[in-house]
Design brief:
Elements: E1 10-11, E2 23-24, E3 32-33, H1 35-51, E4 57-65, E5 68-76, E6 82-89, E7 105-110, H2 113-127
Parallel strand pairs: 1-3, 6-7
Antiparallel strand pairs: 2-3, 4-5, 5-6
Length: about 130
């Protein structure tokens, strides 16, 4: 069994990462995320937990589409309901609009592979801990 450990990202009003990045990933210390991206991450998490009940299984499929790298995430809840999320490396960050959450397939773009890995680690971590009401 492999366990990946990482410092959970800290929401920071003065995000220290380069402007297009989702997460700042300094050589030392925890990653930071801007307030705007922190809210988008929370919205994504809440949309997943609203649609999928019980434990969520996260299956990851890496893809290469032409010159673009993507990761297809298949999230499945206890009752068989599922969400398919495609995370694509494009050089910028684009989140889902509120109306997109009504569809079964979601698309997010991120600047680079480091953001893909950190997003996967974040989702895996938050989906496998008890839900905290806001």
């Amino acid at each position: 069994m492999m366990a990946l450990k990482y410092p959970e990202p800290v929401v920071c009003a003065h995000h220290t990462g380069s402007s297009p990045s989702l997460f700042s990933l300094p050589p030392q210390g925890p990653a930071t995320v801007s307030v705007m991206h922190g809210q988008a991450l929370d919205t994504l998490y809440r949309a997943i937990t609203a649609r999928l009940s019980g434990p969520v299984t996260l299956t990851v499929h890496p893809h290469r589409n032409g010159s673009r790298n993507s990761v297809a995430l298949h999230l499945q809840g206890r009752l068989g309901r599922c969400i398919d999320l495609l995370v694509t490396v494009t050089g910028n960050t684009l989140w889902l609009l509120p109306e997109h959450y009504a569809h079964p397939r979601w698309y997010i773009t991120v600047p680079d592979a480091a953001d893909v890995v950190y997003l996967l680690l974040y989702l895996n971590n938050v989906l496998h801990r008890p839900l905290v009401a806001a």
